[in-house]
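BUG: 3D viewer hangs when loading the predicted structure for this chain

Environment: internal workstation, default settings.
Expected: structure renders.
Actual: progress bar stalls at 90%.

Input used:
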Amino acid sequence: QVQLVESGGGLVQAGGSLRLSCAASGHTISTYAMGWFRQAPGKEREFVAASDWNAGSPVLEDSVKGRFTISRDNAKNTVILQMNSLKPEDTAVYYCVFRGGRIVLNRNYWPYWGQGTQATVSS
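Structure tokens produced before the viewer hung:
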């Protein structure tokens, strides 16, 4: 069973930055993807960003490109989401995700989820 522990998040003004971190444990898979989804109030959970095991080209949702970056440390089984130039519409609960194999955008194909961390951007 994979456990995901998230940290980071909080309250920031528009234009500011937040850094989310997620550490995975309990898995024996050597080829896996990690990433982030988010869910704003009244909206569906949506893909934000993900990185695969060889840290090849990450995948980012269009609205965050140029503002968010995703990186990972395989030695620590950790993925980082650096969020810059934040906008009020980025306000959401952010969930760390894990799956064996490659990145997919459909949330139904990510079997492991963290507990979520709140990021709030004030205008």
